[in-house]
Amino acid sequence: MARQKEFDENRVLRKAMVLFWQNGYEKTSMQDLVNHMNIHRRSIYDTFGDKQTLFLRALQLFEENVERRIQQQIKPITSVRLAIRELFEMAVYSNDGSPAGCLIVNTAIELTAHNQEIADRISKSFSKTETFIYELLLRGQMSGELSNQLDLGKLAASIHNSFIGIRVLAKTTDDKEKILNIIDSTLAVLD
Amino acid sequence: MARQKEFDENRVLRKAMVLFWQNGYEKTSMQDLVNHMNIHRRSIYDTFGDKQTLFLRALQLFEENVERRIQQQIKPITSVRLAIRELFEMAVYSNDGSPAGCLIVNTAIELTAHNQEIADRISKSFSKTETFIYELLLRGQMSGELSNQLDLGKLAASIHNSFIGIRVLAKTTDDKEKILNIIDSTLAVLD
DNA sequence: CCCATTCTAGAACGCTCATTCTAAAAAGGC
DNA sequence: GCCTTTTTAGAATGAGCGTTCTAGAATGGG
User: Fold this and answer.
1) Minimal Cα distance from A125: which residue of B?
2) CA–CA min distance A6, chain B (Å)
3) CB proximity list for B178: less than 8 A, separation 6 or greater
4) Which nucleotide is closest to A44, CA to C1'?
5) Which residue of A135, A165, B67, B105 could cross-link B165, Cys pair, CB 3.0 to 4.6 Å?
6) Cα–Cα distance between B143 and A23 in angstroms, integer?
7) Where is the signal peptide (chains A, B) (predicted)?
8) Count of A-B CB contacts under 8 Å
9) Architecture of A61-190 per CATH?
10) Do residue A109 and residue B106 have CB atoms under 8 angstroms apart?
11) Which is nearest to B191 in space by CA: B150, B162, B152, B154?
12) What is B59-190's CATH superfamily?
């Protein structure tokens, strides 16, 4: 055996994630990462590989965080309306000092056209979220909260599309009330 | 007098616009611009200023093009539903060989957080589009096509939000039918 | 204590970036 | 034909990029 790692891998990866989230892939330089992760340049390469691999790890961490919050905070909610509202508001209010908006949507815009691996990841991520919304709607129909007349497939796709829009606005607007109003209107289709 | 410009300023600016539209600001290098605009590096600086100024001109050209198409293709449509549908489909189908998606939405994601001038431009652009949708809805109410019960302000904000989502999906998906279905569902709120 | 490993430090690599330069060729008005 | 301007061409600048390097200090297990 030998000397142990002195930094918490997840903690420094989180720092990288926040940087990419805030500034995007291209605008985040290795020097920025060195400065904010507070470990040596060499340690970054040894631990995470090159910049692109580090980015993929950061994206993965972001997705895991979202998934955890969905499992813990959204799934237990009995009312479908409230669950979707909570899902949307998760993207509007960052619990800690994390950046506005969503790394997945940012990445979709910045890198999808230039990197097939990332394009697949984004596509899968979008599908997963849309499917989750679909399952919420289905649960709502079975519990009687929602009408049986609704076309859940189309509805899930449409609500998911609105969710993407909200994550763009969350990055570009600081008018929270406007976004909350949009959430209200979006949910009104369930009535 | 002296020698005249040999290139059409608008034609080469359009080339720059397409590059920024396709690749984003950071991923488009001056060398890329020199290669595709087919004029000398020096001529670019003399005619358009530095990279950022050139980008602002390209963004302006994009907005003008959108505005022209709205005036010519959308405004004459009598049915509000059809007008909004046409507006949305404009973003899905690029008439000529122009890139998928929307330079304004791309720029909102990439540059809003780092450049106040651009943030203001994007904000103004979003407001303008939302106002246009509002005016369409108002016209629909006055003509009797839409119910008087609808809250047009909230509705315009919500439809505009969906429009942003569609312009993200237009860049990241090539499943046109899925987007058309989303447009259907989005317009269903007018029924 | 020694060895293996990982940390730190900072220089160095080769490349690309945006921008500016010198220089000469082209073209229209006097 | 000269003057002015714009074109071309391509090199040069200085900074920053991602990545790798040499070198030494720290630390834990045998």
Assistant:
1) B172
2) 34
3) A157, B169
4) D19
5) A165
6) 47
7) none
8) 124
9) Orthogonal Bundle (1.10)
10) yes
11) B150
12) Tetracycline Repressor, domain 2 (1.10.357.10)
Dihedral sign computed on CA atoms, order B177, B65, A106, A134: negative
Opening angle at CA A66, ends A63 and B178, nearest 5 = 75
DSSP A60-108: HHHHHHHHHHIIIIITT-S-HHHHHHHHHHHHHS-SSSPPSS-HHHHHH
- Is the entire prediction scored with pTM above 0.90? yes
Q: For residue B91, which of A107, A57, A165 has the smallest C-alpha distance?
A: A165
- pLDDT string in tens for chain B (191-residue length): 445 666 788 888 999 999 999 999 999 999 999 999 988 888 899 889 899 999 999 999 999 999 999 999 999 999 999 999 999 999 998 778 899 999 999 999 999 999 999 999 999 999 999 999 999 999 999 999 999 999 999 999 999 999 999 999 999 999 999 999 999 999 999 98
Predicted confidence (pLDDT) per residue in A66-94, tens digit:
999 999 999 999 999 999 999 999 999 87
Domain borders along chain A are: 61-190
Residue carrying the six token digits 């505009």: B160
CA distance, residue B134 to nearest chain A CA (Å): 14
Distance linking the first and last C-alpha atoms of chain A: 63
The token pair that represents B42 in the structure block: 């020096």
| pLDDT on residue A4 | 58
A97 token code pair = 């000092």
